Fold these 4 entries.
Entry 1:
Amino acid sequence: MNKNEYHLIDEIATFLDGLYPDIPIRIDDVEQGFEEPCFFIHVISSKFKSEPHHYVLTTSQVVISYYPKKHKASSCYEMLDELSCKMNRLPEIHIFNKEFEVVDNVLHYAFTATTRLKEDIEEVKQRILKRVEGELKDERRTSK
């Protein structure tokens, strides 16, 4: 996973933890025997688009799965109502294309998340330097 995805997962996990401090949040694969209730955060895919002034627009498909304590569908729908309202207020992340599904009394709340990240200027300088050095090497090869 890209470090930008981890930034996204951290932001979502911190936000959920602030809303539901008593519900564990997991980002690892589902293991048998985990305690309920709990959240799982999965980043399905991410796209990165360079923008002017060394910014990168990150667009990710995310699924938050909620496992209620007693596997009641009603608990899933209650959580859906809460998440639908509260997930609009993440500080640096824009959320849209929200969808949900309750399967086997587990809520799967899917959405698209976008955020703009500033590239590390030192990484940008190194990339430019490598490109310039590569062009100089190519010119030397063709001029011989």
Entry 2:
Amino acid sequence: MVTAIGAVPLITSGVAMAESYGGTAPHIEHRAGDGTSFKVIGPGTNVTGDPVILTLANRAEGYKIITDNPLPSSWVGDYKLSATTRDGNGASATREWTITYAPATVPVVTAAANEIWIPGVQHSFRNGARLNPLTTEAWKLPNGVTLGGTHEMRVSMHKDSNVSLVIAGVRINPGDVGVPIGSYDFTTASGKLSLPMMAADDGREGQARLWITTVAPNSPGVDLRVNTWVPHVAMKAESWSVRQAFDMAKLKVEPVAGNRCELTSSRSTARSSDALAAPKCLVEWEPLPTDLKPVTALTPMAEGRMWVHGAYDVGYKISLVDPNDVQVRVASGTATLTVTPIGNLLAYQPQRSSDRAYRLVQPLEVMLKQSAGPSCDTYWSYEGAEYRSSDAVVRCALTWTALPNTLSQDQYWVRPYLKGALEQAGTQDVRWKVDVITPLGSKIPAGEGSFAYNVIEPPGAGYHGGHADRSKRRSLRGLA
């Protein structure tokens, strides 16, 4: 509501006027009175500096409000105007009507339809053409002449705005009216305005509506909507709990609903983008366990095997890179990756036809193969072995921890493979343990076990005092 204050006569050109005029100006009735001017104060705001003086004049198209400067206390749009007059006899009259406040405006070349999106961080980004975010076309006066000279700039922010901005180093808050932000030399700038602009607070999204004017007589203004944004992303994992060594940990950062920037792992790609019109956000992993490595892909990823159990912080940071190669963080996030210990995860069984063997006379050959747990490329552990794991394959080293003295590892095999015969009757145990070999060569215990042979005397063997007849033993060996 724009209100005329006090008993205010209006300038007219005659008496007893009630004629209808063309155009869109309001029709009013007013009887003779002394011509003067009146003040207008905008709704819900306080005027800074001298009040704005308006004149309501009778023109060919109707009554028009005439002012040298746009209203710093009102806003572009429709208003109710109330005017009260008093004649020489003391009789008063009040009229109320709607006016449309639509001063001349200047287009903003960096904003389509005078609406711009800027990152929600305290950094003024230039666009792909290296223009400041608040860059306009030339300011034209009503007579078509380009505005020149040095003039104080003032900025107002609509009270319905929900974010604050910093323009030319001055903070502008919702509801601020006519805030001076310094003088600007339009002559040097060929009549064009170019100022830095950024969010006043990091990480806040919202919209601010600005009205930017000068104190120059008859100058236009800038009506601009500024939106602040932050990345909307999610860090995801195939599983947030993985088994030590055996599970590949796979992480990625993906855009979600409401995201305005394309994600990239390339700094050069991010730097070459237009941070205002088509931003590209650089995704980097921070913190990242040493066993995980970034993966070059369309979707930023990191993956690897975790060789030490425990809980790990994993995170990302998202940055914009301006044309001057200044990197500014705009978002970040962290999560916990849990690595569970292997324990006795692996088991092996002998490849044999029977667990029974004849004493001395029966040659044995047995290979140990994995029977339980995730697949591990298993080798016999010997001095100087260099079979190490990688992200591509997990390798294990099997060590014989207990063997009958006549059974041993075949030295020509790299896999667990025993050869020999069993000399003592009764139960003979074979014991083993297995370790995962990390890429650095350290060992992670992954299981242990045993198997047994029931050793019996061969058929027809003779005994003397508990010992087999030596001649028969030699004849049986010859038959073996």
Entry 3:
Amino acid sequence: MSESSNNIKDDVNDVSVKSKKESLFDRLTTVVIRCLFLFLILWSFDGFWNTDIRALNDFQQTYFPEKVKLEQLKLSNINQNNQYIDQVVRASERRIKRSEEIANNSVSIEKEALKEKEIMEKKLMANLNEVNKLCRYFQTSVLMIGLLKKKYSEDEFKNVLSCTNAECKDIILNNHNIDELCM
């Protein structure tokens, strides 16, 4: 039994040594993968390449000059794009301001036109009232002339009502034109 117990102990020792070796290998692999992952994150992080730390800048320029040039080029492109965007924004703001001024002017012109329209409508109504008043006077005059024509004979009527101008004769003879106007 001692042999079998020795074999078991040897097996246990072998397994523990293997597990220690595997765990050391696993640990080294994990550390290397983590370092590689950290390196990739730093490599793609813009702040790492655009830093103000002098020692880090010197290290980067010594060991990674091409990457430093690429990052500086990227930074200059970003600055140029920012300037272009600022120009576009300023131009847009000027256009918006001009459009607002035109809209405000249009609104004020529209208000003035509405005021003028209202004034003209008031004047038109006043003129229509005046015309209606004159039409009533005219219709009353025509009615009175008609009554006079019925009361007097034609010769007496000419003596009672003598016209001195053409309009008077026109009113007496052709009053149907004015009736159309005053309807």
Entry 4:
Amino acid sequence: MRVFIFSDRVTDVKICFVGRRAIAHDPIHDNLLHILQQIGDVTALYPPQPDVVPDPIATAVQRATFDLYLFWQSDEIASRLLPAIGDRRIVVVPQDDAVRERSPHWWQQFQTHQFACFSRKAHEMLLRAGLHSSYFQYFPPPVPTPGLRYATAAFCWQGQAGENQDIQKVAEICRMIGATELYTPGTGDYPEAIDFPVTRIATDRQDLMEQAAASCGFVILPPHAGGFDPFFLQAMARGQIVVAPDSALVNDYIGHQSSGILYPAENLLAVSRLSNDDMDRISASARSRIRLGHERWQRDQGRLKSILMDDGKRWSYSDYAASFGNLLRQEAHKRTLQIN
């Protein structure tokens, strides 16, 4: 188990941060930890397993007098430590998948505590269960416009975990949008049945991976990409066109045909070829969404600090998620098909 103690003290608040080792360098995690350091002294604990409470953590919780416990993507650990923490303040940043998979009854054990969600769908599900939840959207800082050397090439993220069937679907998406070649992490060759130019980059060549990821005009998430990976936000910041399955979290950030392309995982034919004007418009819109979103995220950190401290302040908030706009566009598209 890893233990870190941060001493960028502003107040006398003592904070216990319990996170997941596998995503300890997620940019949302890093931002949240930085915000906590501005509030008080932070002791960060990373259990080696997401559902087992190691003795050092149990001992730390029982003996230390922390004012605030924040559980980052470690819902099961929070549940098991709940009796030992008692009535001290707990804030849970839950896993999006776990909110959907577990029953409302399971989450109601935290009914006297607070949730901070970075998924609108998870936030709404917790509200329906009668729990205290606040919704936030993280956006990375904008970056200078890169010179895309392979504007018609595509990079498939999470390709190293995909099966040949997934890559074949990604190759089909490439044909539909007009991409001419595909780069993906991994080693070896794909079957000839794919019948599309695919270049695999060894995962131990991080320099080549980053170069390919930043140089392609398209970034594609495969149909069964799991979880939330902020990589696609970095691609949007560079002005790349992200093509992703229309799923929770992703569609909070991408507006279909506006700041990216969303497709139903079960219907790849819904993806259409993009003109040069379409590509320029979507690229500019993606960069603009990141720039404006990052400005809102910086302003919204005051609300997050207030919720963490439970200082009783009232905050207004507008949901800038792309989901509502996506629903409107989908309905308009259906009506157009019916008319024609």
